[in-house]
Amino acid sequence: EIVLTQSPGTLSLSPGERATLSCRASQSVSSSYLAWYQQKPGQAPRLLIYGASSRATGIPDRFSGSGSGTDFTLTISRLEPEDFAVYYCQQYGSSPTTFGQGTKVEIK
Amino acid sequence: QVQLQESGPGLVKPSQTLSLTCTVSGGSISSGGYYWSWIRQHPGKGLEWIGYIYYSGSTYYNPSLKSRVTISVDTSKNQFSLKLSSVTAADTAVYYCARDGLGAVAGTGSGGFDYWGQGTLVTVSS
Q1: Per the CB < 8 Å rule, is A92 touching B100?
Q2: Is B4 within 8 Å of B24 (Cβ atoms)?
Q3: Which residues of B touch A43 (CB under 8 A)?
Q4: CA–CA separation, B2 and B32 (whole Å)
Q5: Residues A12-48: b if buried by 16+ CB within 10 A, e if exposed
Q6: Residues on chain A touching B116 (C-beta within 8 angstroms)
Q7: Between chains, do A96 and B104 touch, taking CB under 8 Å as contact?
Q8: What is the β-pairing status of strands B59-61 and B47-53?
């Protein structure tokens, strides 16, 4: 199975700053089948990005995804107070689908 | 708006079978076009995919759990269910049901999990 490694484990930033989250795969993710989720405490994950760079319905344009092959990035251009959460990447190009271990974006 | 809701016991004894049901509203499972999935999250940890079911009854499981998992569908009730046998404390987790699109290869998704239930905590303890 494909192992996804996210870095950093924790990102301490202030509102208004730019956040850059990394997701590296142990082997190439076919057709850039890579998604990103946001999860807040006590809530289910919310789909942000699919296909590596396409925003899901209703997701603000401050969220953007990029990358291909084994290296992917989620960028939040300007952090809003509601963006402080845990973010997960997921590959769905091969079975079993797998998730990264998460990056926590916390308020500095 | 599609909504999913998990239900089932919050406490299961070791060696017994965990059983959960996901009720879907706002859309019909039998309309096709989607996989219906179970995903779990151990306390304070990441996400683990358990398996998919299609409305026809076709299933795809995570190899790490395959020997203990059964996912079934009841289209008349617009529900799908999870059974996990021989549970141990390591199966204590929040269990989510979710929807995924059909991927190009059978058993793979498409577009990520776009709708989720709120999750239900299942504790395995005597």
Answers
A1: yes
A2: yes
A3: 118
A4: 14
A5: ebeeeeebebbbbbeeebbebbbbbbbbeeeebbbbb
A6: 44-46
A7: no
A8: antiparallel
The tokens for A94 are 């091969």
Name the residue facing A44 among B45, B112, B119 (closest C-beta): B119
CA atoms within a 13 Å half-sphere pointing along the CA-CB vector of B45: 13
Beta bridge partners of B4: B24
Which residues, other chains included, contact A13 with Cβ-Cβ below 8 Å and sequence gap of 6+?
A19, A79, A105, A106, A107, A108
Which phi and psi angles does B33 have, rounded to 5°? Answer: 90, -5
Cα distance from B39 to chain A (closest Cα, Å)? 10
Contact A92 B103 (CB under 8 A): yes
How does pLDDT run along chain B (126 residues), one tens digit per residue?
999 999 999 999 999 999 999 999 999 999 989 999 999 999 999 999 999 999 999 999 999 999 999 999 999 999 999 999 999 999 999 999 999 988 878 888 888 999 999 999 999 999
d(CA A6, CA A25): 9
- Verify whether the Cβ–Cβ distance B49 to A99 is below 8 Å: yes
Please name which of A19, A25, A13, A55 lies closest in space to residue A37, comparing C-alpha atoms: A55
The CA dihedral of B79, B82, B83, B89, to the nearest 10 degrees, is: -140
